[in-house]
Amino acid sequence: MKKHLSKRVAALAMTAAMSVGLLAGCGSSDAPSGSTGSGDDEITTLIWYMSINPVAADTDKVIAKLNEYTREKIGVEIDYKVIANPDYKEKMPNLINAGEYYDICFTSNWTTDYLQFTSKEAFLDITELLPQYAKETYDFIPEAVWDAVKVNGSIYGVPSYKEMGWQGGIVYNSDMAEAYGIDMSAVKTLEDYTKVLEVVAEKSKAEGKNVVGVSGLTNAWPMAAPYESLTGNPKLPAAAAVPEFNNFQDVSGQAVFNQYASEEYMNYCQIVRGWNQAGYLGGDPVNYDSDIANRDNDFNNGALFSYFIQYAPGTSESMSASSGHGVGFVPLMEPLFETRSAMGGLLAISYASEHPDKALEFINLLNTDEYVGTLIRHGIEGEHYTAVGDNQVDKTMGGTLTDNGYDYTYGWQFGTPFNQKWDISYPDNIEQLFQDYNDSAVISPNNGFTFDMIPVETQVAALTNVIAEYAPSLETGSVDPAEYIPKFLDALNANGVDTLLQEVDAQLTSFNAAK
Amino acid sequence: MKLFQKKADGSQDGLAINRISKKANAVLNTVFLLWALACVLPLILVVIVSFSSEQSIFENGYSFFPSEWSLDAYEFFFKLGDQLIRSYGITIFVTVVGTLFSLTITSMFAYVLSRKDYAYNRLFTLLMLFTMLFNGGIVATYMVNTQLLGLGNSIWSLILPMSLNAFYVIVLRTFYKSIPIEIIEAARIDGAGEFKTFFRIVLPLSKPGLATIGLFTTIAYWNDWFLGMLYIVDQKKYPVQTLLWSMQNSLEFMKQSSANALEYAEMAANAPTDSGRMALTVLVVLPILLAYPFFQKYFIKGLTVGGVKG
Amino acid sequence: MKRLARHAGGARGKAGFFKTFKKNLPLTLMALPALIVMFLFRYLPMSGLLLAFKRFSVRKGIFGSDWVWLDNFKFLFETTDAWVITRNTICYNVLFIAIDLILAVAMAIGLNELLNKRRAKAYQTIFMAPYFLSWVVVSFMAFSLFSVDDGLFNHLLAYFGFKGVDWYSEPGKWPFILTFFQLWKTVGYSTVMYISSLTGISNDYYEAAVLDGATKWQQIKWITLPCLKPMMIVLTILAIGRIFYTDFGLFFQLPRNSGPLYPATQVIDTYVYRALKETGNVGMAAAASLYQSVVGFLLVVGANLVVRRIEPDSALF
Q1: CA-to-CA distance for A189 and A169, rounded, in angstroms?
Q2: In CATH, which of 1.10.600.10, 1.10.3720.10, 3.30.499.10, 3.40.50.300 is domain C70-134+171-314?
Q3: How much is the ipTM here?
Q4: Residue C34 contacts B, CB cutoff 8 Å
Q5: S-S: A44 plus which of A351, A358, B145, C37, CB 3.0-4.6 Å?
Q6: Is B128 touching C (CB cutoff 8 A)?
Q7: Probe site for chain A from C56, C58, C266 (most A CB atoms < 10 A)
Q8: Domain coordinates of chain A in residue numbers?
Q9: Which residues of chain C does A284 touch, with a Cβ-Cβ cutoff of 8 Å?
Q10: Which chains sit next to B, with 3 or more Cβ pairs under 8 A?
């Protein structure tokens, strides 16, 4: 097992990122789980529901190979049910609700929600079992990550350990910046960026072009003034200040506050209102943001100068390759690790599983046995990849990547990428990039606090609708903040924002008291 | 029911002139033509966009005259090869078997409910109406279908759950009700049993109604992607709508995260999202539109025979 | 039950029940397959209605989950949107039901009267076409009309020297847009139903009417419409039963989930969708659906009562 971070990390995002689910390859055996005698030892069959894209054509072959190994090693065979991401999102919640039998399933905060199903008592509490059956994994994943996945002090899933936290910033066309003589290194805040946008607009108009200055504003607000979102959803009002970021000074006395009522929010909305009125955002920024394909095209063609994204190491390099021009990145914040950051992907065990011990032993192999990690991620050596040195694989196999019968970009969903060999296409220094990234991550003050929404579900339901109504137009500068923020706040108040904040505060107090 | 009202000024040459005037015909035609354009132009646009290159869509938006044609979108779906053919096969099987089964049980049930002399008429009507207004929700339905009835991953999960639609039963019942009871009684006097009366006499008389419901049922089975999405775990057994839905969504997800993916960035950049969406529509809508005239002939007859001949 | 039996069989007591049962057996057998399907696929899952009053736990199952009684319903009423979503849902549905009825009947009769039958056939097929387009596809088409920068409408407005309209931020225009798209999509479907009803009308009526010198209008008024009446009544009652439901795609996809439009586009279904996306509470979903069902049920029973007074033959039950 390799403990250092110098391993390739495939997954650069926690988004439900995917590719095409082409030919299926589900484990065809419908045999119920249970034990079947084989030789001296009992062989346990584990049913594993997995969400990943695309479902690789050679899945059956790889699983057969995997079973050979796990049968020998831990007496386990996998009945593998792999489902493409968009389908899994529709199917799996119903399977779980209906009480279908399974041992292991993939869960996260973007599909088959970890917190929701934990509160529905669907998953097994593995706090006690972990050190016993998956000790190496338990030791390998940092404590902060384990803390983050705890619900009421108990662990219900093994998280995929990869980059820690998220970092907001602006990616921009660096060729254009150079041509217009813009010094992006001077940009530290949104106020600084106004000048940049001004220059872009001025110079591009002079060239007779109509360049949109910046897009992606519907996600930009938490990057402009980062806060810890205590409910796990950054859009819901219940924030805590992170001391390292030196913001929200006016409310820093409060453990929990409504970020929409802050000075920072007014500030942000006024800045983008200025951008909108100056015409830096195109005619309809809300709809512009919703058509990502169009945005990418504009960005590649130089019709869009920049946009806000959640950044991960290696992004700008890969973007320069795909966009055909230089791409730079201006971070607006240090990476922030908070409770929700650990929920990009977890493997959970069903409460009904007859073999939680074996399931954990298997999950342990995924995270710590390099043969298993590489096999499930890259397939069979000689068939799906050739080994390069000790730590790298070459997946081209004389053809193109898309011809490969077994290839997963988002291999971290299987466990940790630190237990899978690197693909040679990654930058040599990516290990260092990840090291730096994780080192610089700010751990949020209330990491590990998970909010139990049940007492205030009524309020959350109403507030979610209010936010969907007001936030997008305010945060893209489409309406005047001086007029609409008070309206927005009135609507939040009328729909019980105080009840929500009080509940969060109460739960947070008892969480901190218990620590 | 009062069907006739004697006319006061009674012009007698009604027979010959019982057609609308040329002028009225022209007005009607104009209105229908405009509405038809509103209905058909979007469909044509869908077809054209599906054959447009992504680049021309970015540049000009959806256009009837794209600057560049392309088959990318179709190639993307045809890459599925055997899977696509198999999925079409499953959908056709489900649609044909489902429609036949559904039409059989629906028409018999509707007929029984249309009979005023049937003792349990009101009870069953209420029971059925209740199912139209109330449903147990997806959790319980899923539990019953997979755990109790064992339909998970089976083709019957695509057929049986939607085989009885209370709405269609009631519509069909309304058709049956217009059949004079004397005909049924005459058959009974001739010694025909209930089943014989139904199949020999009632069914042939209600062809337009059956064709209507048959059409709606066919459309419903053909268009359904959600049952496949819920109940079929093995992608090889997907009906075509589910398969295409899944592919299209994968494609859109991939696009949205293309900036974050190293290996797929290039592939994503060339993937046809807009034209793909439209090609998908063409692939599923055209076959069913072609089936439409088959049903139409049963109720169009009324247009020539029933209405106007004087 | 007893009353029904007596009603039909005229006999009393247990013996009467069996007599009635036996007499009706052939028809009951005919209904049996449908009854079985109904029982298995509609009534067995009805246990899910319990979830409206429970906090669902996967471990405890539907019957074992804890009761929370009416808590799951609160989110439908404890919101400042409660009035708006209810008003919008009802108003749009009433509007849709009325216009759809008038348009579909008018179109069916119009198509029926066209001199060129071929053309009538073609129109009929074409009117069905929008029904096949998914709301997602329709919403993209609509966006190419309404987009602020590149939309066809704003280009036209600019061409004639008017200022462009910010279609996705001005709720005032959406009642018209939504109504148009709804009718555009579904009128063809309803028309088919009336057209096939028209085929059932015997020619004799018209011939007699013509002999009596009835004009076209009079024939429509005194023959065609009365013959279509049962279908009109049935379809309207059924539509009333769904008055608290809306086509999610129409209200969510078409306006592109645009916040400023909520006053005009927020309906019960979209509200519930957004509300539950966050919490995934199946109890609350069941509660919302039960609420919609109960209102629909009461309205159907009410509408049916009215119809039974006026026109007993057309009543549903």
Answers
A1: 10
A2: 1.10.3720.10
A3: 0.91
A4: yes
A5: A358
A6: yes
A7: C58
A8: 26-163+341-442, 167-225+262-334
A9: 147-149, 166, 168
A10: A, C
- At residue B256, the pLDDT reads 55
- Out of B139, B147, B260, closest to residue A17 by CB: B260
Which of chain B's residues have a Cβ under 8 Å away from the Cβ of A13? 257, 260-261
pLDDT tens digits along B152-198: 999 999 999 999 999 999 999 998 988 888 888 888 888 889 999 99
Question: pLDDT digits over A103-116, tens only?
Answer: 999 999 889 999 99
Q: Which of A95, A296, A409 sits opposite B263 (nearest CB)?
A: A409
Question: Residues in chain C, how many?
Answer: 317
Encoded amino acid at A330, one letter: V
- Rounded to the nearest angstrom, the minimum Cα separation between A143 and chain C is 27
Beta-carbon separation of A319 and B259 below 8 A? yes
**Domains located in chain B, CATH noted:** 14-70 (no CATH), 81-271 (1.10.3720.10)
Tokens 């997602």 -> residue: C136
Contact predicate A47/A79, CB 8 Å = yes
What pLDDT does B299 receive? 64
pLDDT digits (tens, 9 = 90+) for C67-78: 999 999 999 999
CB contact under 8 A, B4 and C128: no
C191-246 tens-digit pLDDT: 999 998 888 787 888 888 988 888 888 999 999 999 999 999 999 999 999 999 99
Q: Alpha helix (H) ranges present in B178-239?
A: 181-189, 194-196, 203-205, 207-223, 226-231
Closest CA to A366 of A376, A379, A357, A356: A376
Which segments of A126-281 does DSSP mark as H helices, in order? 129-133, 135-140, 143-149, 174-179, 190-206, 221-224, 263-278
Residues of C within an 8 Å Cβ radius of A:
55-61, 71, 74-75, 78-81, 143, 147-149, 166, 168-169, 256-260, 262, 266, 271, 274-282, 284
Cβ atoms of B129 and B123 within 8 Å: the answer is no
Beta carbons of C56 and A494 less than 8 Å apart: no
- For residue A291, the distance in angstroms to the closest alpha carbon of chain B comes to 9
The strand pair at A422-423 and A392-394 is best described as parallel
CATH class of A26-163+341-442: alpha beta
Rounded CA gap, B139 and C310, in Å? 41
Q: Mention every residue, 6+ apart, whose C-beta is less than 8 A from residue A398.
A: none
d(CA C183, CA C131): 10
Q: How far is CA A466 from CA A428, C75, C81, C263, in A?
A: 47, 13, 9, 11
Give domain A167-225+262-334's CATH architecture.
3-Layer(aba) Sandwich (3.40)
Query: What pLDDT score was predicted for residue A327?
Result: 92
In this predicted structure, what is the pLDDT of residue A30?
A: 39
Domains A26-163+341-442 and A167-225+262-334 share a fold: yes
The CA distance from B160 to B102, in Å, is 8
**In B, which residues are within 8 Å of C297 by CB distance?**
130, 133-134
Domain ranges of chain C: 1-39, 70-134+171-314
Contact B175 C198 (CB under 8 A): no
Name the residue in chain B with its Cα closest to that of A16. B253
Residue A340: closest CA among A159, A104, A467: A159
Q: How far apart (Å, rounded) are the C-alpha atoms in residues A470 and A467?
A: 5
Say which DSSP state A169 is in.
E
Q: According to the model, what pLDDT value does residue B286 have?
A: 86
Global pTM value: 0.90
Task: Check whether the bond before A486 is cis (ω within 30° of 0).
Answer: no
- Produce one character per residue of A392-406: b if its CB has 16 or more CB atoms within 10 Å, e if not: bbebebeeebeebbb
Nearest residue on chain B to A316, judged by CA atoms?
A: B259
